[in-house]
Amino acid sequence: MKKLIAVLLSLCLIAAMVPMAALADEAAPETEAASSSWYNRDNWSYDEAMNAWYYNGIPYVELTDDAPEWVVERWFGEDDYWHGGWHDGWHDGWWGEHKPVAYVGGQWYWDFGEALKAAGTDGTVTLTGTVYEDVTLEDVTVTGSYRWGGAFSGDVTTKGNVKLENLTVYGQIKVDSGKTVADNVSVRTSGYDVVVESGASFKMDSSCGIDYIWAWNGADVTAPGLHEVKKDKGSVWTDDVSEYYVAYAGGNYYNSLADALDANSSGTIKLLKSDTIGSGIIPTGVKLYISSGVTLTVKGTLKINGVVYNYGKVSGDVDTTVGTLFSYVDIDTVPSGAEVTVWHRSDRWHGDWDWRWDKWHNWVEDDGRNGEYWLTDGWYYYEVSEDGYVSDSGWFEVDQSAVSFSVRLEDDTEYRVWVETTSGGSLEADTTYAKEGEWVYITVEPNLGYALEELTVTRPNGSELKLERVRENYYRFEMPGVRVTVDGSFVRTTLPFTDVSLSDWFYEAVNYVYLNELMDGVSTTRFAPDTATNRAMVVEILYRMAGSPSVSGTSAFTDVSAAAWYADAVKWATDNGVVEGRSATVFDPNAAVSRQELAAMLYRYAQYKGYDVSIGENTNILSYTDVAGVAEYAMSAMQWACGSGVVNGTAAGVLSPNGSATRAQLATMLMRFIEYYD
Asked: What is the distance between the alpha carbons of residues 286 and 306, in angstroms, rounded to a whole number?
């Protein structure tokens, strides 16, 4: 006791000489020797044998200069009195190397091996710290303290009857023999969390953070929530079987997509891993989901009668005549609140584009998430806008693969320079983003036969910026502190075609259809006036003249692919009686169009539009020497065409009804048709 009093007196003298900030460097005080109320605590005690102070039964030790830098703060409240003044604060007690690692039978242990010896066979060790080496446990229970934790930083090998509870293991649990039970145990390691040897037993409860177990043949494992995958030399227990199986359907896992299709004629099948399939069929009642990063390789032809939702890739030939292959498209935007709109390119002919909104494409899972789509194969055009201001756009292709990309509108220092798409020429800015005050340069490139009509740069509020002309077709403006839109328009000046001259009989007609965007050239410099037109070209032009109305479904013609640029035009034309097929299943899109066929198509189109075609009833075409060559189906049409002036003879008294209609003749008949009904 004398020794104890002397120690306390020394502590009090030191406390009187140091400022309050140094309080954390003092040892814990004894309750009986208090020169101030700060020391007066009944929950302090001192063990002379251990040379350690205790607070609520937890050991503290005298601090030294090399004490580890780990501290537990203890709040003492506003009644603490220190050196004549009130002290609202805390006392810091040092732990670290001196913290006991285990507790057995009312005793604290700084060495885990000693604690195991003290526990003996079938004893219990309460782990209060971290064991920093590999350990072997045999016939013992080790439980972590809810208050002070408990962890093994190395591997744990178990033998006999071992129970582990309320612990974290940063190594691997190796069940060597006997039975090991885990209750609320988390394993954080690479590779297998637990390895169970043959003849050993491992049982865990559902609260364990264990998701990867290897069990040799002959081992006994109970693992709620994990799936067993049997292997040649044992079993893997895991929460993610995609590493081991190819497909999943109806609660069962399969080694191939072919096996899953054989066993499931309806419902949902998920392709978990890349696989190869020969010729096969996705049944009508099946929805096949291809996981992200997974490729389905088709060696023959995969006939899709059901629906495929593709997050990955399909490589090979697929037949979607009956069913549909949808691929996932994700367009992320910065900022995320920007609006994304996507259009489908329905067709392309001689460089002319036709647009329609693909209303039949829904948002992913119909959840309305902006910028996410299920789309069929084809080219698409996207626009990203914010507050009604178009900030970015472009093309992307869906080709049996999922598509994902990001669009950045602006950041804190740079602003978007958005250039509109124009016809008759192009505009190009020298930068996509610019800081306020920077010069932005615009290059104007008119197409052959066009000239710039107007060029503007506007802010989102519609106000225009000042443009400076640097030289011909080259301009600049100073970037404001907001996004801008560059837009322009071009006008046609002369025909760009080298094979159409002013002296040609068809010059006026070609100029008319070109200026009115009914027909374009076969290239930028050739119109090919003497080339025969085909059925696909004509129905496409009539479809455009009708305003490209929406159609549903596909035609019954086997020679018209659903992906063909003229597919919608054929469906519209046959549905409305404008054009008929060669038979119920053949349209013959590439066949040349005769003059009487073209007259019949225009005649039926006029009827479709509700135009007056009665002039044909009183028109006599018997004076033409080859009138006998006019087919019965085309007789009324030829009478109307001749009476309205849409068709004239190819020579004096000659109709040439079976002659091929050239592009020049088509242009002429279109011009006369429009002018007659204008």
From this structure: 5
CA distance 226 to 224: 6
Please tell me the distance from the alpha carbon of residue 345 to that of residue 351, in angstroms, as a whole number: 12
Q: Measure the CA–CA gap between 7 and 30, rounded to whole angstroms.
A: 10
Q: With beta carbons less than 8 A apart as the criterion, state whether 173 and 136 touch.
A: no
Strands 85-86 and 102-104: unpaired
Task: Judge contact between 598 and 661, C-beta under 8 A.
Answer: yes
pTM above 0.70, yes or no: no
How far apart are alpha carbons 499 and 520 in whole angstroms? 13
The closest of 68, 98, 122, 87 to 15, measured between CA atoms, is 87
Comparing 319 with 649, the larger pLDDT belongs to 319
Tokens of residue 361, six digits: 């494409």
Neighbouring-strand partners of residue 175: 158, 196
Q: Which of 21, 86, 15, 27 is nearest to 55 (CA)?
A: 27
Tokens of 607: 């009827």
**Strand 107-109 versus strand 123-127 pairing type:** unpaired
584: three-class secondary structure by DSSP: coil
Determine the Cα–Cα distance for residues 91 and 23; give it in Å rounded to an integer: 7
Question: Bridge-partner residues for 254, per DSSP?
Answer: 247
Coil, strand or helix at 235: strand
Q: Tell me the per-residue pLDDT of 305-361, one tens digit each, with 9 for 90 and over.
A: 999 999 999 999 999 999 999 999 999 887 777 888 887 764 333 233 333 333 333
Give the residue among 32, 34, 40 at the shortest CA–CA distance from 11.
34
Q: Residue 103 and residue 43: Cα distance in Å, rounded?
A: 19
* pLDDT in the model for residue 593: 93
Phi, psi of 648 (to 5 degrees): -120, 165
Give the chain's radius of gyration (CA, Å): 42
> How far from 139 is each of 129, 157, 168, 265, 671, CA to CA, in Å?
21, 12, 19, 53, 100
The count of C-alpha atoms lying within 13 angstroms of the C-alpha of 80, restricted to the half-sphere facing its C-beta, is: 15
> Tokens 């919608």 belong to which residue?
568
The SS3 assignment for 473 reads coil
User: pLDDT (tens digit, 9 = 90+) per residue, 148-195?
Assistant: 678 999 999 999 999 999 999 999 999 999 999 999 999 999 899 999
What are the start-end ranges of the H helices in 595-653?
595-609, 635-644
Question: How many whole angstroms separate alpha carbon 311 and alpha carbon 338?
Answer: 24
Q: Do the bridges between strand 339-349 and strand 352-356 make them parallel or antiparallel, or are there none, so unpaired? A: antiparallel
Cα–Cα distance measured from residue 666 to residue 643, given in angstroms and rounded to the nearest whole number: 17
Q: Which tokens hold the place of 371?
A: 């910028």
Nearest alpha carbon to residue 289 among 262, 314, 252, 255: 314
Distance, in Å, from the CA atom of 30 to the CA atom of 500, rounded to the nearest integer, reads 112
Strands 173-175 and 156-169 turn out to be: parallel
- Taking alpha carbons only, the member of 69, 67, 74, 70 closest to residue 29 is 74
Q: HEC states along 239-294?
A: CCHHHCCCEEECCEEECCHHHHHHHCCEEEEEECCCEEECCEEECCEEEEEECCCC
